[in-house]
């Protein structure tokens, strides 16, 4: 059973990184549904696909984060709508939907990223 009060753990991915956004619901929520224009309150974990190394986690900071979806990377803008509060979703985001090709100026550019997102609220 998945404990939504605990930081998620990820198994190391197998095979080549996907070229398109991959969306997997780990837990389907039963609350309000996130829409494209929503502001979301989330807990999340981010790891690099190739190395499995964690690069960011709201869990480590001890508090969730509130974001307007429109200000986030394309992978989140496409991968969170339809998710319901109380859910946990894994997004595998190829570089072109994350921080762009290698050399784009962000430390994660050129990398496929995996996020596990817990949707705590929408507004």
Would you write up a description of this structure?
- The chain contains two helices and six strands; from the N terminus they run βββαβαββ.
- Strand 2 and strand 3 (54-57) form a beta hairpin.
- The chain is mostly beta strands.
- The protein has a single domain, classed as Chitinase A, domain 3 (Roll).
- The mean pLDDT is 94.
- Strands 1, 2, 3, 4, 5 and 6 form a six-stranded antiparallel β-sheet that branches.
How are the SSEs ordered, and which strands pair?
Blueprint: E1 22-27, E2 39-48, E3 54-57, H1 58-61, E4 65-68, H2 74-79, E5 88-93, E6 113-122
Antiparallel strand pairs: 1-5, 2-3, 2-4, 2-6, 5-6
CATH architecture: Roll
In the CATH scheme, the class would be Alpha Beta
CATH topology: Chitinase A, domain 3
Total number of domains: 1
Structural class: mainly beta
Annotation, overall tally of beta strands: 6
Note the quaternary state here.
Answer: single chain
From the N-terminal CA to the C-terminal CA, the straight-line distance is: 28 Å
Keywords: Isomerase, Rotamase
Family: Belongs to the FKBP-type PPIase family.
GO molecular function, one term: peptidyl-prolyl cis-trans isomerase activity
EC number: 5.2.1.8
